[in-house]
Amino acid sequence: MSDTQSAGMDRYTVGLTDETPQRREDGSDPFPWPAERISEYTAYRIDEPIAVDGHLDEPAWAAAPRSPRFSDMISGARAIHDTRAAVLWDSEYMYVGYWIEEPDVQADLTERDSFIFRNNDVELFVAGRDGYYELEINSLGTIYEVFFVWDDVYDKVDYGREPTLRKDHPKAKPFNGVGMKDHPRGMRTGFWGYDLPGLKWAVQVDGTLNDSSDRDRGWTVEFALPWSGMEWIVAPDGRSAPPKEGDVWRMDFSRFNQYKEAPPADDSGAFFWSPHGCRDSHIPECYPIITFTEELLPQGR
Fold this sequence. Notes:
The protein is mostly beta strands.
């Protein structure tokens, strides 16, 4: 095996478990997207808190490095509309912002934990070693949250100490992925009764919501995830929250659309910061590699 191959394989499991198989029995890669094409990003620290109002108009957001334009989750092809994201942090929160180009902003789901992906939405996944958190939001600001735990470690970590992460909870269900049903770690359990403590969020629409008679520019989303609320993300591997210099997390950033670009474009209706190679958001090994630095965000970028 070459040094390049070895490095590529290691990148799959940065911030995850060292026990995840890296090859199938026949020698093929178990994951649908090449490791060397997984995006990397540096998240800078800020020294003034951000007002979570959805406007993304603070100097910090103007200076923050943004992701590349999101691309098709399966093929990696250029998406019909622009979507970008950025990550910042301070001692209390991790902040995530999204800039979403949308010529006709529409949403109708208002009940929390509705299937928000049935509207046009953006999504955030934050992975720990043995579980990961999913957060979705539409342009009305309605959110959907789930926490997933790999069954092979559920008892070792004692997730059941959290009432909403008990397997006998009425909103706990077995889960085996979406487009990838043969993940090397096997089954996981989804806990639809889980809410991240202290989460803040806001949306702003640049246009007129639910009015197709005019043309909109789009919408912006702002999340603030408190480090104090991430107990079950960091518990298995004891990672620091807030992070330390050079700490690496795996996080996913995506957008799902109810419309698709007309043929001959092969539009999956889903745009990702870093594609997955199949229609499945639940592959942490394909999530972008986010490195946190204690260096203050350079201004005037």
